[in-house]
Amino acid sequence: MNTSSLSSQQPQPIGGTDHLEMTEPPAAPPRDGPVVRDAVDWDEVHRLIQRVFDDLASRVCEQSLHIRAMNGRTAAQAFPLFSYRTFDIPTDHAIESIAAGVDFQKGPGDDSVTVRGDIVREDTGDILFETEQRVVPLTRTDVFAAAEEASRALSQQAAVILDGLEQPCVPEAD
Amino acid sequence: MATEPLSEGIVYRRGQLKSRDFTPRPGKDTVGRPGQLPGLSTFRTPTPGKRVQKIDLARLRPPLRAFADDPAKGGTAGHVAILPVDDSGEVDQALLEEWAASRGSAETHPLTQFVLDTVVPQMEAGSS
């Protein structure tokens, strides 16, 4: 089967890694008045999270020049955004890579999203740290606040990532 | 292919929602063994302490199909492989290997996106 035909059947794939330019933070919403239910710009949310992850990456990578940090994002029907930063040691394949990420999953209902941040070993799926799962209204203000809160919680866990990168992989059967 | 594909049911994939987590491993997942077809590994039950994603097999789109292992022939009970098949229903080995080769690349392979699109939101009605 030709994969070019597959591409035409689905939304444009989103790169697993990308390079981001620093931008100004989004303007603060008005403090008073009605809640503005404007559309959430997921590109903007991704940039916000990655700015916070830049701090995390700095703290992790300053401990070892051998650690590589790469950012990325995915999206699908059930989730408008999963924004993440992976950490690995390219010169040592015995060390399992670790990823910190924030996902936004649809629901419950059409007007909210479920937000969760976690730090996970990439191959085994071991959860090293996770934030409390939050359901927030699908508004720009609420999504930005939740994104910042989750990503900042993860960014405080540099020690978890560094500890994890000191332990060799345990091969799994599948 | 002797085994019938599964057209419905929930399975679990270990890992987060990265493209890498939804792409088979080259050289490992591209090779079958007795009672188990090659492909992306999923399981009927989630593993405690692991990050898993719930997949609705009814949402799989062609050419992807899901096949349960045959424990009587050496497969693993509860293991389900997701793989591309050709028009005759046989494993499309070339496409599977192309898919696996994309693991870790900057672009999300279309088959990876197909599987990502089967993920069930955590808070979806009826979801557990």
What would your notes on this structure say?
The complex is a heterodimer of chains A (174) and B (128). Chain A has 174 residues and is α+β, with helices and mostly antiparallel strands. In chain A, 28% of the residues lie in helices and 24% in strands. Chain A is built from four helices and six strands; from the N terminus they run ααββββββαα. Chain A has helices at residues 3-7, 42-61, 140-155, 158-164, and strands spanning 68-74, 81-88, 98-106, 112-121, 127-130, 134-137. In chain A, strands 1, 2, 3, 4, 5 and 6 form a six-stranded antiparallel β-sheet that branches. In chain A, β4 (112-121) and β5 form a beta hairpin. Chain A is elongated, with a radius of gyration of 17 Å. The two termini of chain A are 26 Å apart. By secondary structure, chain B is of the alpha+beta class. The mean pLDDT of chain B is 93. Chain A binds chain B through residues 1, 3, 6-7, 9-11, 13-18, 72, 74, 76-79, 82, 84, 86, 99, 101, 103, 105-108, 114, 116, 118, 120, 122-127, 133, 135, 173-174, and chain B through 14-21, 41, 47, 49-52, 61, 63, 76, 79, 84, 86, 92, 95, 98, 104-114, 116-117, 119-125.
